[in-house]
Amino acid sequence: MKLIYKLLATSFGSGYSPFAPGTAGAIVGCILLWLLQKYQLIDTFNTPILFVGFISIVTLIGIFVTNKLEEDWGKDPSKVVIDETIGLWISMILVPFTWLNLLLAFILFRFFDIAKPLGVRKMESLKGGLGVMADDVLAGIYANIVLQVIIYFL
Length: 154
Prior knowledge:
Elements (H helix, E strand, L loop, with lengths): L1 H8 L11 H18 L9 H26 L8 H9 L8 H17 L4 H4 L4 H26 L1
């Protein structure tokens, strides 16, 4: 089971990247989202309730697997990047799927994830997997809000 936990927590191994594992996890989020859109399994804009439900389930899985690995890997290890994958997805809720929107979501999410403004850093103080996931959830929400404003004015 630990192998499955590690596969999920590292977003299919991207968390093992020696350079910027969080960015690698967000890139995996982009690729997975593109696949979900391509095969019409999820639509970020037209079926937001389904998309939010999917994100919620994967977030709960992320909390669970992170808690299971915390004993071996320590608190909030850089290898755990499922939170970056989730944060990227959140930044695309109710956003039409285009390559430009995905690129903007990626840039905005990584900005908020790295800068950690407006309470994002405070979320890390929550215990275990919840704290690992919560800061990226909030960074994704901020990225989504800014992206919605950009789309509105473009």
